[in-house]
Amino acid sequence: MLKPTTCLRFHGNVDSNCQEFKQQFNLFLTAVNLGDQSDLCKVAMLLTAAEPGAIAVFNLFKFANDEDSKKIYEVIRRFDAHCTPVRRKFMNTLCLHHIYRRQKSP
Fold first, then answer.
1. Greatest CA separation found in the chain?
2. Is the overall model pTM greater than 0.85, yes or no?
3. pLDDT 10s per residue in the chain (106 long)?
């Protein structure tokens, strides 16, 4: 039996961790021939393979309806959105600081 993917970690480089987890999770689904399983089964596998904190994060997501919470595409999209803003916020702050310094320069 194949080992499930490495866990989805919400510390360190979160964006990179999320991308790596998604790639490994998709490869795992292909390797064990689970690509044809229901989305509900894939969501359950994703939450089981991720670190325990992922379920708490999942429970915070606001889906349009209960069916969306059972669609693997929607769940992965929500995790992507949750993982990427950390870097984007830092970069925006850095850019604003750079602009501010340039304006104050003589």
1. 66
2. no
3. 456 666 777 777 778 888 888 888 888 888 887 767 788 988 988 888 887 788 888 999 999 999 999 998 999 889 888 887 545 555 556 555 555 555 565 5
